[in-house]
User: What shape does this take?
Amino acid sequence: MFRMILWKEWKENLWKLLFCSATSVVFIIMLFRMRIIPDFSNCILISFIQMFVVPVVYSLDIFSGEVSNRTIHLLFKIPVKRWMIFFSKYLVSALGIVLVFLISAILMELMTRGREASMLFLLGTNLLYGLAGLFLFTWFCVFGCQSRSEAGSLLIMSAVFIGWGIILLWSSVCEVTWAERFVPYSLLLTDITEISLAGIVFSQIFAFAAVLAVACYRYVSIRRYL
Amino acid sequence: MKIQGIIHQQICQLKWHLLACLGLVMVLPIEEAVVSLKDGTGVYSSTMVIVSLMFAPLLTGLIACANVQGDFEEKRYIFWRSKPVNVKLFVTLKFLTGLIASLIIIACPAIFGLVLSIFCKDYLEDETLQYFLPFAVLIAILTYSLCFGCNVLVRRTARAWLIGMLLGAFILVLPFILPLNYRDFVSDVMFGAWGYYPAIMLIASAAAFVFALYAAQHEWHLKTNLKGLLWVGTGLVFALMMLFNSQVANIKVLQEKEIESHDWRWNALDSAGDRVIFQGRSYINTNNNKISFSNIDVNPDDIDEITVPTTRIGGYRTRIYPWRGRLYKKTEGNLYSLAIYVYYRNEEKKDIYEKVYLRSHMFTGESWMQDDELDISDCLEDSTYPSTTMRLIDNKLIVLVNKSLVIIDVSDPQELKLIDKKLNALKSRAPYFYDRRKEFAIPLVPVEEISSEERIRLSIDRYYHYNDIYETSKVNIHNKQISFFRISQDDIARFDVTGWDDENIYCKFGTARPFTILERLTQDYSFHRAFVKGGKLYCPGEHTLMVFDIRSNQKIRKLGHFVRMDYRIEDIAVLENGNTLLHMYWSQNLSKSHNNQSKRYLCLLENPQ
Assistant: This one.
C-alpha cells in the first residue's frame, strides 16, 4: 500500500519536477551562454533562486492541495498509517528537489567545463544549495503541513525563508555561533573551517531529524478537516 | 456600480495578505536597526532594506494572485457575473487597488531605510537605495501585472504565481538577449538607465493588464495542471531565443601560452616605451594576436663604456624600489633600468636606514650591469624605514623619498644628472574621507619641470596609488577633464578635479558604480592594483580582471570580465592596441603546498569595447 501511495504522489507531483527542471535548464543555458556575469556568479544566482523557488513549488500544494481538492477525506480513510502518507509526500518531494538540483548541477558543469572555475566546482556549489533547499523544505513541512490554501502555503514558505534570514543575521552580528549552525544557509557560508563544518553538518542532521519528526507528528494529528 | 464599495471590498479581501506581506518585508530592516542599535554602531537598516526590496516583487505577485483568486473562485465568480457589473471597470479597480496596496508595502521598508540613512548619514547605502528603489518598484509592478493576468486566465493561485514569476524572469533577461549592447547590469540597467529596459518592463506590465481585462471580459479560462502545451511552448520560445543569442560580457581570450619561468618574479611584465618586456630578458610580440618573444637589442659599443661605479657598502642589507617590477628607459640603442637602492643594517633588533642611491643598469644581452649611480642619502630625515616612489616623465625622473623630492635628467641613463633637489618639501598625509561628497584638497607636488597635468597626476597618484606609481596611474585625463578613481569593497568612486592653485588640487565626488551583491561575494580584494589606461579602468583581482569604461562623465560602465578561479593573475600589461596581456600562475593546489605541479601562462585578451 505504501508503494501505491508513493506512486500516486509521484504521478501527482511529476509536473513539478518537469516544470522546475525545464525552467532551470532554460535559464541555465540562457545565462551561461550570455555570460553577462562570471560563471561562478551565475551559478550562485541560479542556485540561490532555485533554493527558494524549488521548495516553494514542491510545497505549494503538497499538503494544501488535498484540502482544496477535498481529497483529504478520502486519503485519510485509506487503510494506511498517516505517517506513511506524510512520508510518501515528503520522500517524493525530497527526491524531486534532489533531482532538479542534480540536473542543474550537471548541466552547469557540462556548459562551463571548467572554463572559469575548476572542474566540479559549480556542481558542488549547486548541490550544496540543493541541500539547503531540502532543509528549507523540511522546515516548511513543520509549519505548512496543516495549511489549507496555496496562498497560505506561499506565505508560510516566505516566512520560513525570511525567518531563517533573521536568525542568521542575529547570530552572525551578535556572534551566537551555536545558533548559526542550525541555519540551513550556514552550509553556504564560505569561511567555514573544517571543524565548524563538522559542527554544522552534525547540527543540521540533528535539526533535520527533529524537524521531520515534528512535521510528521503535526500531520498525523490533523483533526479539523475530518 | 459603487466604486468605493468595490475598493473597500478589495481591501477587506486582501487585508490579511497585505498585513502578512508587510510583516515579511519589514521584519529584516527592523531587526537590522535593532541589532545595530544594540551593537552601538548606530541605527541603520539599509542593507536589509535592499534584501527586503529584492524579494518584494515575489510578494507583490502573491498579492496579485490573492487579489484575483478571491473573486474568480467558482461560486463567487458565478455570483458576481450574474450581477449587472461592468467587468472591465471591476477588474481595473481590482488591479489598481492591489497595485497601490503593493506599492505602499514596498514603500514602507524603503522609507524606513531612507529615514534611518539620513539620520545616520550613511551616505553610501543611502545612494545605493536611491538607485535601487525605482528598479525594485518597476520589477514589482511587472510581477504584479503578470501574476494578475495569469491568475485571471489560470485561476489557481500557486500556478498563476509560478507562471507569472517565470514570465517576469524571462522579461528581465530578454533585453540582454536583444541586440541592445547591454554588458553591465548595474550601469546599463539599474542606475539611471531610463532606456529600453524599463520601457520593456512597463510595456509588458501594460500588456498583462490589458490581457487580464480581455480574459475577464470574455471568460477565458485555461484549465491546466502545468503539464501541457504552455510549458512546451515556453521552452521552445526560450530555445529559439538561445539560438539567436551570442551576446557575451566576458573578455575574449586570443591566445594562451604556457611559458617556462624558472626565475619567478611577481611583476614579470613591464613596459618600455611601446614594448612589453618579459622578466627583464626579452620583448613580447603580439603580432596577429600570437604571443612570441624576441631578443632585446644591444649596442656593444655602449657595453664597453660601462665603468661599474658601484659603492660597496659592507654589512648592509638592501631594499630595492620597485621591488616587484622594473622601471625601464629605452634609448635608441639600449635598454636601461632605473631603481632606488636603500641600505640598512640591523642593530639591536632594529633596522637602521642610512644610505639611498639611484642607480641605472644597462642590459648587456645576458645580464644587467650597473652603469651610473647618484647618492641621494640626504633625503633620509631619520633612520626609520623610508617610503620611496618614482615616476619617469619624458626624460625626467621624479624620485620621492619620504618628504623629499629629487628631479633627475635621465635622457642619457649612463650619466644621471641632478636637476633639482627639494628636502622636506612634501606634505605627508592624504586627506581622509569622512564624507566623500564634500570638496577636498590634495597637496600639489612642487615640481615645476613637468606639465601641470603630469604634476596633478603625480600628486594624486602619490596619495592614492601608493607604490605602483612608477608604471601605472589612477588618474584619467579626458577632454581636458581630470578625474581619479578609488575602489573599495562597496564601489568604484570617481572624483573630479575642479581646480588647482600653487599649493593644492581641489576635488569633488563625481559618481560611483556600486558593486552588486554577487560582485561583492566573489570579489578577491586586491583592487589596489587597479589602474587607468586609454579611457579604461582595469581592476585586476587575484583571479579576476574587470575592465570599466570611464570615458563618460555620467557613469562608469563595465565592459567585460575575465575570470580564472584556478589561476592567480600575477601581472598585467595593456598593449598599445588596447589588448591586454596577463601573466598567470596555475597550481594544482594554490593554497597548500609549493611542491605540487604548477605552470605559468601568458594570456592575450581582446580589447573590450
Remarks:
- Chain B has a mean pLDDT of 82.
- The two ends of chain B are 59 Å apart (CA to CA).
- The longest strand of chain B covers residues 350-363.
- The longest helix of chain B spans residues 3-39.
